[in-house]
Amino acid sequence: MNDLLHNFFDWQLIGDVLPDLLTYGLRNTLILSVLSALLGSVIGMVLAIMSLSSRPWLRAPARVYTDIFRGMPAALTILMIGEGVFSAQISWLASPYPVAILALSLMSGAYIGEIFRSGIQSVEKGQGEACRALGMTHGQAMRLVVVPQGVRRVLPAMVNQFIAIIKDSSLVYFLGLITSQRELFRIGQDDSVATGNLSPLLATGLCYLLLTVPLTHLVNYIDRRLRDGSRRPAATPEEPSLVDPKEVLV
């Protein structure tokens, strides 16, 4: 029992690794996650629109892309993209960071595309019909009415996907990172290997919880607000007040 506690709860080692985790480790993880989420959202929206198109030559590539990047393990995808980019010797992607952001964005784009697609399809068809009755084109109706409503409905799922991106960012160590580029997991792993103790990895897990637990509560809050808003009864018009006929007579 003492060995187990020492292997996981060596407070001296935890205190030694925390400064690195909370400075450049946390910063690098957030950079990877936020940039990947933004680029993945753009990719996802394009995929969602393509998959909802009436043209088969647009739907088919979106479906193939989604099936591939959702079906492959994240570690394998990152390794294959990294090896492909490094083999091609693309100068502006020479650093592991751009490659990692590209890989995470391509993977998250497949999931976000399905999230956007389900949100857009959940909007009542009458919304689009009303837009066409007002003289809007299909593109205007989608851009101004349907897509904004669909995105609003999938906000909880989008935050969940961002949590998944944060956790997947721990896999970029496969690409090889220098000391200043290390993210949370790589710092904890390196210190754990150097000391032969798992306490640095426990500290790393606590840092991930510091990021993901508030986001989880944010998901619950957004979901609760959306459900409460959908259940709120529509305001009924006020009944006109009755006027005494005697007051009308002069």
Automatic annotation (TrEMBL):
The chain crosses the membrane at residues 30-52, 73-93, 201-222. InterPro entries: AA_ABC_transptr_permease_3TM (IPR010065), ArtM/GltK/GlnP/TcyL/YhdX-like (IPR043429), MetI-like (IPR000515), MetI-like_sf (IPR035906). Residues 26-219 form the ABC transmembrane type-1 domain. It comes from the Bacteria. Pfam families: BPD_transp_1. It is a multi-pass membrane protein. Belongs to the binding-protein-dependent transport system permease family. HisMQ subfamily. The keyword ATP-binding does not apply. Keywords: Amino-acid transport, Cell membrane, Membrane, Transmembrane, Transmembrane helix, Transport. Gene3D superfamilies: MetI-like. One of its GO terms (biological process) is amino acid transport. GO terms for molecular function: transmembrane transporter activity. GO terms for cellular component: ATP-binding cassette (ABC) transporter complex. The keyword Transmembrane applies. Its main location: membrane. This is Polar amino acid ABC transporter, inner membrane subunit. It is found in: Cell membrane.
